[in-house]
Amino acid sequence: MAGSGKAHMRPDGDRILVVDDLTVEFNLGRGKVVKAVSGISLDLIRGETLAIVGESGCGKSTLGKAILQLPKPTSGSVNFLSKELTSMNKHDLREMRPAMQMIFQDPISSLDPRLPVSEVLAEPLRVWNRGNEVEINEKIDELLRAANLDPAVVRDRRSYEFSGGQCQRISIARALALDPTMIICDEPVSALDVSVQAQILNLLQDMKDRYGLTLIFISHDLAVVKAVSTRVMVMYLGKVCEVAPPDDVYLRTRHHYTKALVGSVPIPDPDRKISAGLMQGEPPSTIDPPSGCRFRTRCPAATEQCVNEEPQLREVAVGHFVACHHPLED
Amino acid sequence: MFKKFMKKPIGFKLASLWLFAVVFVSVTYDLFPYVQWDAISDFSQGDGPFKVPGHILGTSYDGMDMFTATMHGARMSTFVAVTSVFIGGGIGSLLGISAAYYRGTYDKVMSSIFNMILAIPNLVMSLALISVLANGNSNQPASDFRRVLVLTISLTIVIIPILGRIARASTLQWSSREFVLASKSIGTKNFEIIKRHIVPNVAPAILAIGFFAIGVVMIAEGSLSILGIGIPGGASWGSLLAIGRANLEYSPHEVYIPVACIGLTVISTNYFGDYIRANLDKRESKI
What we know:
Chain A has about 325 residues and is of the alpha/beta class. Chain A is about 30% helix and about 25% strand.
């Protein structure tokens, strides 16, 4: 199932980002190579929210960072606003940075503990010479208010004086400081309480509408993804399993891995029986991934074909793509 | 500020008073209306402390006043220790921070160099450096200035890998935090990131170990003096100790006064190092 392919690309759309056959490998020495991301292709149409989901270690965060060239991917191309990032020199790449920002998973680690909030938010504005000190100060207040924080209260505090949710608001304000086109949100709510998660998700949604942002939303939490995304990409061990609108992923699941993921979303009902057929075991090592379909070792429907042949993404319904030799019936 | 100081633990008060006294005397020694520290007294030789009027800490076997000699010794000991830790710490931090931030081959080379220097016992290395770079012959010994210079340089070389490794380890820890990645994604230049985010966070750890290092250097300076290749002529505590060693049976206070001074200073700097680190931990646990 977990395979490659480009059937899901949309060359006719107003694409701001085209990622083609992206591979990220980490050399561990002694001939060991971690294949964190293997031949992923995706595209992003202006104004949409693409969610990338998968369990821990499937390469989704690595994919997000590789799109921003932090660090540069091993091979493949990343085309952002019609400019190729992978072949750019340091100087040109730096010029592109304001348009693409990132929000990180650990809200507290995202802020320098030695700097007050006003300094944290002033950094991007100063680095890019966005106005004099007075204008920068006004912009900081505006950003804090946009993130539902009271500038008078928070300006001079440092990160350890805030809760995780407040830190994440400040991170969002910082990401917005340079009026970006695209923001990559790397599990922005997974470290937060459920009640705070909703606030942050609403804030992101507001910001998206207000500033016309395009988001890539990386998460392992399908419930969160369903609330925010317009398109979902399911990843397993550095490969794509399924690409579809969120409703199709939940209600018309075609991939065995996605089914297991959807089945693992906890439902707050004590009387509910734990459904059978949940996935067994651990994901295989990314140093030596299985041949053919990478999910075959844990897949209930695996056959000889899955061992020998890597499945390619194909369209099984309108806008619904699956990389599986034996997809589930609708 | 005084009120704040009075609230500190007793160890902090004693340590800071002693260090303040040492630094104060080192700086202002020339202003005191005492006799020359190495002037020879002809009526008191080898008397213990509080025995002869006018010589509070007694006199040496050669008739030199121990109080002025000790005060004068503070200057050279402090100078050598502070200078080598300051310069060595500066170079070490620079190398350690840049190695940990940029990683790669540069880091590997730097770490190997640090490990190589650390593998050589520091007394042996100082001894080798001094005997090569500040050698004289029996007719014309190397000048005092040159010996002090080479001694300071050799102790600086000892300090570089010690603080360099601390800076490297601390930078590795901080540069993996997400705010550094966030700065990179903003487009902040590497040098700015190091200046704004890495150095302020790494500084407390380096400062704490830097205080320990002052103690290490003082002891090393004393040991080299005993070996006969330290600062010549009783100009530092270690040197006084080396001279007094010869007269141990007649005037033991010649040994234990400089030893007490070195000991108190080392304990005080160690206490300060611990104090800074403890407060640093308190701050860290809040994060």
